[in-house]
Amino acid sequence: MNSRERVRTALEHRCPDRVPLLLWMTPEVSAAMRSHLQVESDNDLLDKLDIDVRWLLADYVGPELKEYEDGSREDMFGMRMRSVKNEFGAYDKHVYHPLAQAETVEQVDQLRWPEPQWWDYTSLKREIALADRVEPRWLGIGYVSFFERGWCLTGFEKWLFDIAMNPELVDAILDRLFDLYLAQTRCLLEAAEGRIDMVYLGDDLSSQDSLLISPAMFRRFIKGRWQRFIDTIKEEFGDHLKFHFHSCGAVAEIVPDLIDMGIDILNPLQPLAKGMEPAGLKSRFGKKLSFSGGFDIQELLPHSTAQEVWAEAQRLVGILGRDGGYIASAAHAVQPDTSVENIMAMLDGFKNAG
Question: Taking the model in full, what pTM does it have?
Fold first, then answer.
Protein backbone atom coordinates (compact mmCIF):
# COMPACT_ATOMS: atom_id res chain seq x y z
CA MET A 1 0.00 0.00 0.00
CA ASN A 2 1.08 3.58 -0.51
CA SER A 3 0.43 6.18 2.18
CA ARG A 4 -2.83 7.42 0.72
CA GLU A 5 -4.25 3.91 0.43
CA ARG A 6 -3.02 3.04 3.92
CA VAL A 7 -4.78 5.96 5.63
CA ARG A 8 -7.96 5.53 3.61
CA THR A 9 -8.11 1.85 4.57
CA ALA A 10 -7.66 2.67 8.26
CA LEU A 11 -10.34 5.36 8.16
CA GLU A 12 -12.74 2.87 6.57
CA HIS A 13 -12.23 0.80 9.73
CA ARG A 14 -10.34 -1.91 7.91
CA CYS A 15 -6.82 -3.11 8.66
CA PRO A 16 -4.06 -1.71 6.42
CA ASP A 17 -0.64 -3.33 5.88
CA ARG A 18 0.60 -1.33 8.87
CA VAL A 19 -0.80 1.46 10.98
CA PRO A 20 -0.47 4.86 9.23
CA LEU A 21 1.81 7.45 10.84
CA LEU A 22 1.58 11.14 11.65
CA LEU A 23 4.52 13.02 13.22
CA TRP A 24 4.13 16.47 14.74
CA MET A 25 7.23 18.13 16.23
CA THR A 26 8.43 21.44 17.63
CA PRO A 27 11.11 23.19 15.53
CA GLU A 28 13.80 22.11 18.01
CA VAL A 29 12.82 18.45 17.66
CA SER A 30 12.67 18.68 13.89
CA ALA A 31 16.19 20.12 13.82
CA ALA A 32 17.49 17.32 16.09
CA MET A 33 15.82 14.65 13.94
CA ARG A 34 17.19 16.14 10.70
CA SER A 35 20.67 16.15 12.18
CA HIS A 36 20.33 12.57 13.41
CA LEU A 37 19.14 11.28 10.04
CA GLN A 38 21.42 13.61 8.05
CA VAL A 39 18.70 15.18 5.91
CA GLU A 40 18.25 18.79 4.86
CA SER A 41 14.56 19.65 5.08
CA ASP A 42 11.39 18.70 6.93
CA ASN A 43 10.06 17.04 3.77
CA ASP A 44 13.27 15.00 3.54
CA LEU A 45 12.80 14.00 7.17
CA LEU A 46 9.17 12.92 6.72
CA ASP A 47 10.08 10.92 3.61
CA LYS A 48 13.00 9.26 5.38
CA LEU A 49 10.68 8.20 8.23
CA ASP A 50 7.89 7.21 5.79
CA ILE A 51 5.31 9.42 7.51
CA ASP A 52 1.96 8.99 5.79
CA VAL A 53 0.08 12.20 6.70
CA ARG A 54 1.23 15.63 5.48
CA TRP A 55 -0.23 19.07 6.24
CA LEU A 56 -0.24 21.79 3.59
CA LEU A 57 -0.74 25.54 3.95
CA ALA A 58 -0.82 28.37 1.44
CA ASP A 59 1.89 31.04 1.63
CA TYR A 60 0.94 34.28 3.39
CA VAL A 61 1.37 37.26 1.03
CA GLY A 62 -0.80 39.85 2.81
CA PRO A 63 0.15 43.12 4.49
CA GLU A 64 3.53 43.20 6.18
CA LEU A 65 3.39 41.95 9.77
CA LYS A 66 5.03 44.31 12.26
CA GLU A 67 7.69 43.54 14.82
CA TYR A 68 7.93 45.55 18.03
CA GLU A 69 10.70 46.74 20.33
CA ASP A 70 9.65 44.35 23.09
CA GLY A 71 10.44 41.43 20.78
CA SER A 72 6.81 40.66 19.96
CA ARG A 73 5.48 40.24 16.45
CA GLU A 74 1.97 40.53 15.12
CA ASP A 75 -0.02 38.05 13.07
CA MET A 76 -2.56 38.72 10.35
CA PHE A 77 -5.31 39.35 12.95
CA GLY A 78 -3.23 41.98 14.77
CA MET A 79 -2.51 39.70 17.74
CA ARG A 80 1.03 39.90 19.10
CA MET A 81 3.19 37.07 20.39
CA ARG A 82 6.64 37.00 21.94
CA SER A 83 9.02 34.06 22.08
CA VAL A 84 9.77 32.85 25.62
CA LYS A 85 12.75 30.56 26.13
CA ASN A 86 13.09 27.70 28.59
CA GLU A 87 15.87 25.19 29.23
CA PHE A 88 14.83 23.02 26.28
CA GLY A 89 13.56 25.43 23.63
CA ALA A 90 11.03 28.22 23.23
CA TYR A 91 7.30 28.84 22.91
CA ASP A 92 5.13 31.78 21.83
CA LYS A 93 3.24 33.76 24.45
CA HIS A 94 0.34 36.06 23.59
CA VAL A 95 1.08 39.60 24.76
CA TYR A 96 -1.57 41.65 22.94
CA HIS A 97 -5.20 40.91 22.05
CA PRO A 98 -6.69 43.37 19.52
CA LEU A 99 -10.29 42.99 20.79
CA ALA A 100 -9.41 43.15 24.50
CA GLN A 101 -11.44 46.36 24.90
CA ALA A 102 -14.30 45.50 22.54
CA GLU A 103 -17.80 45.64 24.00
CA THR A 104 -19.95 46.09 20.90
CA VAL A 105 -20.47 44.48 17.51
CA GLU A 106 -19.42 47.77 15.90
CA GLN A 107 -15.99 47.48 17.54
CA VAL A 108 -15.66 43.93 16.18
CA ASP A 109 -16.46 45.19 12.69
CA GLN A 110 -13.77 47.89 12.99
CA LEU A 111 -10.98 45.33 13.37
CA ARG A 112 -8.84 44.87 10.26
CA TRP A 113 -9.99 41.33 9.51
CA PRO A 114 -7.83 39.19 7.21
CA GLU A 115 -9.00 38.71 3.63
CA PRO A 116 -8.82 35.35 1.80
CA GLN A 117 -6.63 36.93 -0.89
CA TRP A 118 -3.89 37.50 1.70
CA TRP A 119 -2.71 33.94 0.89
CA ASP A 120 -1.13 32.65 -2.33
CA TYR A 121 -3.05 29.48 -3.15
CA THR A 122 -1.03 28.83 -6.30
CA SER A 123 1.79 27.63 -4.01
CA LEU A 124 -0.34 24.63 -3.03
CA LYS A 125 0.42 22.76 -6.27
CA ARG A 126 4.13 22.96 -5.47
CA GLU A 127 3.55 21.71 -1.92
CA ILE A 128 1.43 18.80 -3.17
CA ALA A 129 4.13 17.75 -5.64
CA LEU A 130 6.75 17.92 -2.88
CA ALA A 131 4.66 15.82 -0.51
CA ASP A 132 3.89 13.24 -3.22
CA ARG A 133 7.40 12.97 -4.66
CA VAL A 134 8.06 9.48 -3.21
CA GLU A 135 4.51 8.12 -3.27
CA PRO A 136 0.98 9.50 -2.91
CA ARG A 137 0.60 10.74 0.69
CA TRP A 138 -2.53 11.46 2.69
CA LEU A 139 -2.83 15.24 2.41
CA GLY A 140 -4.57 17.59 4.80
CA ILE A 141 -5.10 21.35 4.62
CA GLY A 142 -5.99 24.25 6.77
CA TYR A 143 -6.08 25.41 10.31
CA VAL A 144 -9.65 26.39 11.20
CA SER A 145 -10.40 27.51 14.77
CA PHE A 146 -13.38 29.22 16.38
CA PHE A 147 -13.24 28.97 20.19
CA GLU A 148 -9.45 29.18 20.44
CA ARG A 149 -9.03 31.92 17.87
CA GLY A 150 -11.81 33.84 19.59
CA TRP A 151 -10.05 34.02 22.93
CA CYS A 152 -6.76 34.89 21.23
CA LEU A 153 -8.52 37.99 19.87
CA THR A 154 -10.08 39.08 23.17
CA GLY A 155 -7.94 37.50 25.88
CA PHE A 156 -8.94 34.32 27.68
CA GLU A 157 -10.73 35.74 30.74
CA LYS A 158 -12.69 38.26 28.70
CA TRP A 159 -13.72 35.54 26.24
CA LEU A 160 -15.17 33.37 29.00
CA PHE A 161 -16.89 36.40 30.55
CA ASP A 162 -18.39 37.45 27.22
CA ILE A 163 -19.68 33.96 26.48
CA ALA A 164 -21.73 34.27 29.66
CA MET A 165 -22.52 37.99 29.69
CA ASN A 166 -22.10 39.42 26.16
CA PRO A 167 -23.16 36.65 23.74
CA GLU A 168 -23.87 39.14 20.92
CA LEU A 169 -20.20 40.13 20.88
CA VAL A 170 -19.10 36.49 20.83
CA ASP A 171 -21.50 35.70 17.97
CA ALA A 172 -20.11 38.61 15.96
CA ILE A 173 -16.52 37.41 16.37
CA LEU A 174 -17.41 33.80 15.57
CA ASP A 175 -19.39 34.82 12.49
CA ARG A 176 -16.40 36.79 11.18
CA LEU A 177 -14.13 33.81 11.77
CA PHE A 178 -16.59 31.46 10.10
CA ASP A 179 -16.79 33.58 6.95
CA LEU A 180 -12.99 33.92 6.72
CA TYR A 181 -12.18 30.25 7.25
CA LEU A 182 -14.92 29.02 4.94
CA ALA A 183 -13.68 31.29 2.14
CA GLN A 184 -10.06 30.32 2.75
CA THR A 185 -10.86 26.60 2.80
CA ARG A 186 -12.78 26.93 -0.48
CA CYS A 187 -9.76 28.62 -2.05
CA LEU A 188 -7.42 25.86 -0.84
CA LEU A 189 -9.64 23.06 -2.10
CA GLU A 190 -10.20 24.73 -5.46
CA ALA A 191 -6.46 25.27 -5.91
CA ALA A 192 -5.72 21.63 -5.06
CA GLU A 193 -8.10 20.38 -7.78
CA GLY A 194 -9.32 17.34 -5.88
CA ARG A 195 -5.98 16.20 -4.44
CA ILE A 196 -6.77 17.00 -0.78
CA ASP A 197 -7.97 14.18 1.47
CA MET A 198 -8.61 15.86 4.81
CA VAL A 199 -9.46 19.21 6.43
CA TYR A 200 -7.92 20.14 9.78
CA LEU A 201 -10.17 21.71 12.42
CA GLY A 202 -8.82 22.73 15.80
CA ASP A 203 -10.29 24.12 19.01
CA ASP A 204 -8.67 23.41 22.37
CA LEU A 205 -11.89 23.09 24.37
CA SER A 206 -10.67 21.47 27.59
CA SER A 207 -8.18 21.51 30.40
CA GLN A 208 -6.62 18.30 31.66
CA ASP A 209 -9.61 17.77 33.95
CA SER A 210 -12.71 19.24 32.33
CA LEU A 211 -14.21 21.31 29.51
CA LEU A 212 -13.38 25.02 29.54
CA ILE A 213 -17.05 25.84 28.91
CA SER A 214 -20.17 23.82 29.66
CA PRO A 215 -21.54 21.39 27.08
CA ALA A 216 -24.57 23.69 26.79
CA MET A 217 -22.34 26.66 25.91
CA PHE A 218 -20.37 24.53 23.47
CA ARG A 219 -23.64 23.63 21.72
CA ARG A 220 -24.85 27.23 21.80
CA PHE A 221 -21.75 28.88 20.32
CA ILE A 222 -19.47 26.30 18.69
CA LYS A 223 -21.15 23.07 17.62
CA GLY A 224 -23.59 24.54 15.11
CA ARG A 225 -20.90 26.56 13.39
CA TRP A 226 -18.64 23.54 13.04
CA GLN A 227 -21.52 21.47 11.68
CA ARG A 228 -22.47 24.16 9.17
CA PHE A 229 -18.84 24.47 8.09
CA ILE A 230 -18.47 20.71 7.55
CA ASP A 231 -21.83 20.37 5.80
CA THR A 232 -21.02 23.26 3.43
CA ILE A 233 -17.60 21.89 2.48
CA LYS A 234 -18.95 18.38 1.91
CA GLU A 235 -21.81 19.69 -0.21
CA GLU A 236 -19.47 21.76 -2.38
CA PHE A 237 -16.44 19.45 -2.60
CA GLY A 238 -17.68 15.93 -1.87
CA ASP A 239 -18.24 13.42 0.90
CA HIS A 240 -14.83 11.85 0.30
CA LEU A 241 -13.20 14.61 2.37
CA LYS A 242 -12.39 13.63 5.95
CA PHE A 243 -12.53 16.06 8.86
CA HIS A 244 -9.79 15.88 11.49
CA PHE A 245 -10.68 17.60 14.78
CA HIS A 246 -7.98 18.58 17.30
CA SER A 247 -8.69 19.40 20.91
CA CYS A 248 -6.32 18.89 23.79
CA GLY A 249 -7.63 17.87 27.19
CA ALA A 250 -10.68 16.12 28.54
CA VAL A 251 -13.24 16.21 25.72
CA ALA A 252 -14.87 12.79 26.25
CA GLU A 253 -18.11 14.43 27.38
CA ILE A 254 -18.71 16.02 23.97
CA VAL A 255 -17.40 13.25 21.70
CA PRO A 256 -21.01 12.34 20.75
CA ASP A 257 -21.45 15.97 19.65
CA LEU A 258 -18.30 15.77 17.55
CA ILE A 259 -19.66 12.68 15.83
CA ASP A 260 -22.97 14.50 15.22
CA MET A 261 -21.03 17.38 13.64
CA GLY A 262 -19.48 15.04 11.09
CA ILE A 263 -16.00 14.64 12.57
CA ASP A 264 -14.13 11.61 11.19
CA ILE A 265 -10.91 11.70 13.25
CA LEU A 266 -10.36 12.86 16.83
CA ASN A 267 -6.89 14.10 17.81
CA PRO A 268 -4.70 14.15 19.91
CA LEU A 269 -6.16 11.81 22.60
CA GLN A 270 -4.25 13.22 25.56
CA PRO A 271 -4.11 10.02 27.64
CA LEU A 272 -3.44 11.63 31.03
CA ALA A 273 -6.51 13.87 30.70
CA LYS A 274 -9.67 12.80 32.51
CA GLY A 275 -11.74 10.29 30.54
CA MET A 276 -9.32 10.10 27.62
CA GLU A 277 -7.92 6.60 28.18
CA PRO A 278 -7.51 5.02 24.71
CA ALA A 279 -9.19 1.72 25.56
CA GLY A 280 -12.33 3.43 26.85
CA LEU A 281 -12.58 5.76 23.85
CA LYS A 282 -12.10 2.90 21.40
CA SER A 283 -14.75 0.80 23.16
CA ARG A 284 -17.32 3.60 23.33
CA PHE A 285 -16.79 5.38 20.03
CA GLY A 286 -14.52 3.26 17.84
CA LYS A 287 -17.24 2.15 15.43
CA LYS A 288 -18.22 5.73 14.54
CA LEU A 289 -14.95 7.61 14.94
CA SER A 290 -11.27 7.18 14.07
CA PHE A 291 -8.46 8.35 16.32
CA SER A 292 -5.09 10.02 15.90
CA GLY A 293 -2.53 10.39 18.68
CA GLY A 294 -2.71 8.81 22.10
CA PHE A 295 1.00 8.46 22.92
CA ASP A 296 1.69 10.38 26.14
CA ILE A 297 4.23 13.20 25.67
CA GLN A 298 3.92 14.56 29.20
CA GLU A 299 5.58 11.72 31.08
CA LEU A 300 6.14 8.56 29.07
CA LEU A 301 7.81 9.73 25.86
CA PRO A 302 10.37 12.11 27.42
CA HIS A 303 11.13 10.20 30.62
CA SER A 304 10.95 6.47 29.84
CA THR A 305 13.50 4.13 28.32
CA ALA A 306 13.47 3.41 24.60
CA GLN A 307 12.29 -0.12 25.37
CA GLU A 308 9.35 1.19 27.40
CA VAL A 309 8.46 3.65 24.62
CA TRP A 310 8.55 0.87 22.01
CA ALA A 311 6.29 -1.33 24.15
CA GLU A 312 3.76 1.48 24.64
CA ALA A 313 3.63 2.12 20.89
CA GLN A 314 2.88 -1.56 20.34
CA ARG A 315 0.20 -1.49 23.04
CA LEU A 316 -1.54 1.53 21.54
CA VAL A 317 -1.71 -0.03 18.09
CA GLY A 318 -3.22 -3.13 19.67
CA ILE A 319 -5.95 -1.01 21.28
CA LEU A 320 -6.67 1.83 18.88
CA GLY A 321 -5.68 0.04 15.68
CA ARG A 322 -7.93 -2.95 16.26
CA ASP A 323 -10.18 -3.24 13.16
CA GLY A 324 -8.59 -0.10 11.75
CA GLY A 325 -9.58 3.42 12.72
CA TYR A 326 -6.19 4.67 13.96
CA ILE A 327 -3.49 7.06 12.73
CA ALA A 328 -0.55 6.47 15.07
CA SER A 329 0.95 9.60 16.57
CA ALA A 330 2.10 11.28 19.73
CA ALA A 331 -0.56 13.10 21.73
CA HIS A 332 0.63 16.51 20.49
CA ALA A 333 3.80 18.00 19.04
CA VAL A 334 6.80 16.10 20.37
CA GLN A 335 8.55 18.48 22.77
CA PRO A 336 12.26 19.37 22.92
CA ASP A 337 12.82 17.55 26.23
CA THR A 338 12.46 14.27 24.30
CA SER A 339 15.43 12.29 23.02
CA VAL A 340 15.82 11.31 19.38
CA GLU A 341 16.27 7.72 20.59
CA ASN A 342 12.80 7.70 22.14
CA ILE A 343 11.16 9.26 19.10
CA MET A 344 12.73 6.61 16.87
CA ALA A 345 11.61 3.91 19.30
CA MET A 346 8.03 5.20 19.21
CA LEU A 347 7.94 5.19 15.41
CA ASP A 348 9.55 1.76 15.22
CA GLY A 349 7.03 0.39 17.70
CA PHE A 350 4.15 1.79 15.67
CA LYS A 351 5.50 0.47 12.36
CA ASN A 352 6.24 -3.02 13.58
CA ALA A 353 3.10 -3.64 15.60
CA GLY A 354 1.03 -6.61 14.53
Answer: 0.96
